[in-house]
Amino acid sequence: MTKKKSKHLRHGPGPMPARRTPAAPPYQDGIFRLLFSDKERLLELYNAVTGSNYGPETPLEITTLDTEIFDRKKNDISFLLDDKLIVFVEQQSTVNYNMPLRFLLYVAKTYDKMVSQHEIYERKAISLPAPEFFVFYTGHDPFPERKIMRLSDSYPEDGPVNLELEVECFNINYPSGAQMLERSRTLYGYSQLLHRIRRNRASGMTLEQAIDCAIRLCKEEDLLTAFLTDHEGEMRGMLFHYLDDDEFREVYTHRGYVEGLEAGIEQGSQQKALQTAAKLKAMGLSAAQIMEATDLSEEEVAAL
Fold it and tell me: Which pLDDT value is given to residue 177?
């Protein structure tokens, strides 16, 4: 197969950026993962993305990897649908053109867990569920409403393409991702929650006030009501940590202090996690909720 002429997009289209933004910390995706760990909401999301109509009786098995793959990063959500499809879903707050490569590692690890070692040496072809890959973008940088990323974008220009993987990416920021948000009430509620928190912050509210106000308004408008009621403590903690760190990282990125400071930022993130944990403890959250929201150990939380 001959590869179509294209640019070498290891860092995405356009000129190579002068500075490199560090990878998002693992707890960022916890909110999205918690929300769509429910089978009914997950089916709603898949139907919205693909235009399918799978009902609540459809067999669905969560296959999300429970161990770290690389860079302390776990995949957000993966699930086996009707024993035919293995679907991988990620939420990203930063544009990452390496998602096809990351999904390749995820799917290889997942298939490895699904197939016994002796089967791969047998003559009979192994039956595998077909993979699908989706990314939902919630960051500040400009991004199209829908975009396809390909593994071959990282290959040398005009080289052969013997392995391909396509990722369908959707901007779900309100109102940028209006078309997708119209298809899923849950996705719309999630996008509205983040949008209102950011809008409240821009109006001068403290982060705690912005989160409280956004949650209250979402409940009043029946957006994510049951989920927020069941997981409000966890949500407050994760939102506080997620958005507080998001703002912290954005400031340093805009000032140009990121390049070469990954270690320093990691140390700063640890200190920020401790500060966040102290605030959450003062708000009355349990040690387990604080640990979930901040990724701190039980010993670190107990020492506060």
Answer: 85
